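Hello,

Following up on my earlier ticket. Below are the two sequence lines again, exactly as submitted.
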Amino acid sequence: MAEIIVQKFGGTSVGSVERIAEVAKIVEKSAQENNIIVVVSAMSGETNRLIGLAKSFGENPNKREFDALVSTGEKVSASLLAIALNQIGIKAKSFSAAQISMKTTNNFSKAKILDIDDKKILDTLADGYIPIITGFQGITETGDVTTLGRGGSDTTAVAIAASVKAKQCDIYTDVDGIYTTDPRMVPNAKKLDAISMEEMLEMAGKGAKVIQIRAVEFANKFNVPVRVLSSFEQGNGTLIYLKDDNNMENALVSGIAFQKDQVKITLHGVTDTPGIAYQILGPLSDENIEVDVIVQNVSVNGKTDFTFTVSEEDKSNAEAVLQNLKDVTYDDLIIDSDVAKVSLVGVGMRTHAGVASTAFKSLSDNEINIQMISTSEIKITIVIKEGALESAVKALHSAFELEK
Amino acid sequence: MAEIIVQKFGGTSVGSVERIAEVAKIVEKSAQENNIIVVVSAMSGETNRLIGLAKSFGENPNKREFDALVSTGEKVSASLLAIALNQIGIKAKSFSAAQISMKTTNNFSKAKILDIDDKKILDTLADGYIPIITGFQGITETGDVTTLGRGGSDTTAVAIAASVKAKQCDIYTDVDGIYTTDPRMVPNAKKLDAISMEEMLEMAGKGAKVIQIRAVEFANKFNVPVRVLSSFEQGNGTLIYLKDDNNMENALVSGIAFQKDQVKITLHGVTDTPGIAYQILGPLSDENIEVDVIVQNVSVNGKTDFTFTVSEEDKSNAEAVLQNLKDVTYDDLIIDSDVAKVSLVGVGMRTHAGVASTAFKSLSDNEINIQMISTSEIKITIVIKEGALESAVKALHSAFELEK
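Thanks for your patience. The regenerated structure is below:
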């Protein structure tokens, strides 16, 4: 039996019947060499249409029913693609998450995949059919339909690839690969032929929206090589390779990710006692507020400043949590919405000094003030004023010669 | 436990979010007195939209995938109604056919219901939730999604009512009940408070489109009283009562059904041998062509004329079958599309003579020529020129004083 490749097509790739016909041709061609399993998103716009319907009765529709409703979008695109394939003589069968027993936790709208019954998928392949599977959804132990959250189709694809031991998972989208940074901001940004899974994790986590971070985590955990490529034009896309798969010399900096819509929150004059970070961040985590760059200065006279960023949408929620903190005393709560984050990502940073200083010099030369800095082994994140974002990204892109 | 009533809401009843909110109110009110199980159709227009999508790749989409696709319409309306009910404080859960194991045959697009697992439905009721079930669909033994054919949601509702031994099945639609004939043709047509199941079978079979004939057959077989009523206005609708449930004197004629888009086919000069009817009709039946009014004249000189009607959509298919008949010889094949059928239906005909002669006199007085006549115990069907249909229906309606 030929090797298996999982191909995932996103919303714009199946956004119209014409697009679906194009996808059918891609699948037809790939099926000449490999066993293909397809995962599809809903047609672009459809999920938003369904969400609109759900919210027409009130802002907070019943969670179980909300998932049952929005999960219909992928059922439509999966059967349409199966129709298109059969029409050109390629045997294909669509399957809902329920039909392949894609079991998840019962957290509606953000369920996590627990288990896949790959027997039905493999039997379907063995029977000579291409399985077309609905992304983004699953079922609970009791058969209720769940969804995995926005972008969850990527995770579905990688999870299936892991389950059937596919040699690769191809994520088809409307861009032709991963770039050194967003080409809409830096016109000479360069497409990467390959990027390490670790770097991709840092890129995705910081707002590179090409692929969902949970999907990369899944791929990393189960050793599934992932390729990101375009369904609109030919090309090899960008391979996201596993740790030891690639011998090429690691680039110092592979890419620059950035994120607007950030809020910087400072608790000024916090009484510094042991466990203070947990006492502040624990209640935020309990509310599912994701805290990002965290900086705590050394304390002076038993008091310190504690600063972190959250995304704009969590702002009011975070504010409420902080105002009700029980065991923390502080002088001021300062909230600044006029900030953005820029991250330099590169495995090469591990072994090369000087990345940080090059970055800081470049920003300084451009008179961009750095508000916060946070570093990890393969990443440097800098918080700046939102208005300075574009010139910062351009300056850094040029300083590390990423256009070459 | 209170008695169970199954309520089915058709496409126009759930045609918009505003309509769904109205349906939620009807369910809320009914649930104060009885245990309610709801069955829904797709929002009006949605099934046609999905069929259009399916056919955008070719006129004959893969049958399995076609059913998987169009069945999503009811999933949307079921979860939307569940959302609307939860929003007003009524606990409700939507279920797809798969979730309640509504097993059918594997004839895609015209599957027949085999079995329902009513445990999930009854458990849901016992837990205090109103089950909202997708009409029109089922699953095969191997888990493929099927649909029951147009209007199949009525059948779903009656089948569920039979399975859970409901005291009644209410079919909510956009008309307020069954009329003596179509009010669009005869303005003083009268709504019937009740009609016998037998009469309804004859009415539905002849084109009264208020309720699907298979649903009435199901109701008849499993003794489920059915009520047809409007979701747009208050009223008691029309009760379709079981044979021995009703003591009121049977009307001579309860209603007049009619059907346009008919084709009259005559095999002229057929050599009359034993079994000739079967040799003609058997091959038509094999092609799923439904033959209706059949007339065979006495034979003269060993030759006879054999005439029957089919619906317009089967015309070319029927013609092909007849031209390839192996064991039948005839002189001419005459096809006449300019015909319509009118049927008088009434249980009272059984015991009262004179219905036929009153009908024929009325048509004669109006100079309407009768082309074919076929009678059963409770029905007289007449085939006339299509152009004479309206005056025929009006004349008969008046002759039997149905407006009173």
